[in-house]
């Protein structure tokens, strides 16, 4: 099981470490040819506009979309969630436009710019320590999307088939369960492809 972490910006090393702890081989991805042979990909947090531009400049957008089209799982955290979304509030276009969700950027406002809270995440944990940093949330999901976690009415984690997204940063905790959940998705998907 070999999983890439898109390494254009953000908490790359932390994701690599968590994937390894969850039992996968993990590698940083900067160029399109490094996607070959991967079973899944993590898209970390950072600044979604910047990552989106770099992804485009480095010719990574299309190969990542193709990777998803071939059934390989993707996991976007925070800015990565924004990059996966089909719709971004107030923006004319989306980035990878893969997941049937609408997102609102920097959605918790100045009062709650960065905070941590324990959340139940369906199928993952009853008490996941969720770290939010200028986080987005999901305002709408399409019919094929399962909501995994909410804060009040705000959706902060979701799954659509082989696509997983969280508004929080599971790589910034010591809790490996969210990455283990993703590694299991990757294992299931690769079993189906064989
Ligand atoms: N606020 C960032 C954005 O909109 C996301 C923040 C993050 O990834 N921690 O792109």
UniProtKB/TrEMBL annotation:
<protein>
    <recommendedName>
        <fullName>Pyridoxal 5'-phosphate synthase subunit PdxT</fullName>
        <ecNumber>4.3.3.6</ecNumber>
        <ecNumber>3.5.1.2</ecNumber>
    </recommendedName>
</protein>
<dbReference type="InterPro" id="IPR021196">
    <property type="entry name" value="PdxT/SNO_CS"/>
</dbReference>
<comment type="subunit">
    <text>In the presence of PdxS, forms a dodecamer of heterodimers. Only shows activity in the heterodimer.</text>
</comment>
<dbReference type="GO" id="GO:1903600">
    <property type="term" value="C:glutaminase complex"/>
</dbReference>
<feature type="binding site">
    <location>
        <begin position="133"/>
        <end position="134"/>
    </location>
    <ligand>
        <name>L-glutamine</name>
    </ligand>
</feature>
<dbReference type="GO" id="GO:0005829">
    <property type="term" value="C:cytosol"/>
</dbReference>
<feature type="active site" description="Charge relay system">
    <location>
        <position position="171"/>
    </location>
</feature>
<feature type="binding site">
    <location>
        <begin position="46"/>
        <end position="48"/>
    </location>
    <ligand>
        <name>L-glutamine</name>
    </ligand>
</feature>
<feature type="binding site">
    <location>
        <position position="105"/>
    </location>
    <ligand>
        <name>L-glutamine</name>
    </ligand>
</feature>
<dbReference type="GO" id="GO:0008614">
    <property type="term" value="P:pyridoxine metabolic process"/>
</dbReference>
<keyword id="KW-0378">Hydrolase</keyword>
<dbReference type="GO" id="GO:0036381">
    <property type="term" value="F:pyridoxal 5'-phosphate synthase (glutamine hydrolysing) activity"/>
</dbReference>
<dbReference type="GO" id="GO:0004359">
    <property type="term" value="F:glutaminase activity"/>
</dbReference>
<comment type="pathway">
    <text>Cofactor biosynthesis; pyridoxal 5'-phosphate biosynthesis.</text>
</comment>
<comment type="similarity">
    <text>Belongs to the glutaminase PdxT/SNO family.</text>
</comment>
<dbReference type="InterPro" id="IPR002161">
    <property type="entry name" value="PdxT/SNO"/>
</dbReference>
<keyword id="KW-0456">Lyase</keyword>
<feature type="active site" description="Charge relay system">
    <location>
        <position position="169"/>
    </location>
</feature>
<dbReference type="Pfam" id="PF01174">
    <property type="entry name" value="SNO"/>
</dbReference>
<dbReference type="GO" id="GO:0042823">
    <property type="term" value="P:pyridoxal phosphate biosynthetic process"/>
</dbReference>
<comment type="function">
    <text>Catalyzes the hydrolysis of glutamine to glutamate and ammonia as part of the biosynthesis of pyridoxal 5'-phosphate. The resulting ammonia molecule is channeled to the active site of PdxS.</text>
</comment>
<dbReference type="InterPro" id="IPR029062">
    <property type="entry name" value="Class_I_gatase-like"/>
</dbReference>
<keyword id="KW-0663">Pyridoxal phosphate</keyword>
<feature type="active site" description="Nucleophile">
    <location>
        <position position="78"/>
    </location>
</feature>
<dbReference type="GO" id="GO:0006543">
    <property type="term" value="P:L-glutamine catabolic process"/>
</dbReference>
<keyword id="KW-0315">Glutamine amidotransferase</keyword>
